[in-house]
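Section 3.1: Structural characterization of target chains.
Under the original work plan, the team committed to producing a structural model for every single-chain target entering the pipeline before any wet-lab resources were allocated. The record below documents one such target. The sequence was received from the expression subgroup and is listed exactly as submitted; it comprises 177 residues.
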Amino acid sequence: MYSNMPPNVPPYLSQDEGNYQSLRPSVLTWQKIYCGLMSCLYIVTMIGGSIFLFLATTLSNGQDAAILIFQGIVLLVLGLIFAGVFAASFFIPNRPWAWIYNIVLICLGMSSCCTLPATIPLLIYWLKPETQAYFGRKTSYQPPPQFTPNQYQQNYQGYQFDQEQSYDYNKPQEPKE
């Protein structure tokens, strides 16, 4: 049943018989771009921390060298942790816990006013039921049905559409006999 499905695609998408790309929310692409940029930012932070460590004695006098070394260690450690956390989002599968993991990454970015213009729209689209359903979270969202012309005729068989008659929706309609 799932033999033609690529890895990390939730099982509910198999009902569309392989057309899983049309149901993939576009916010996932933006999330990957966001995580890639944040990983790069924290790699730059690691580089800055290592510069502080190696040049602490040459950039300052004896008293300030200890402060620069401490700041370098903090920047290096935090840069390493957060670069790894944001880079891990590229390798996690599409599971319900991964949706939560990614929303935490978006919220981490909201702690800086520089990333707010990117994280607010990302958060709005991330909270949509389509995205939650893509990750396998239980929502009331159902993918839209794919009707063929025969199925459409079967569903509306015997129903007459009055194209020429106009209705006044303000007054009650009398049933036709």
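Residues 25-134 form one domain.
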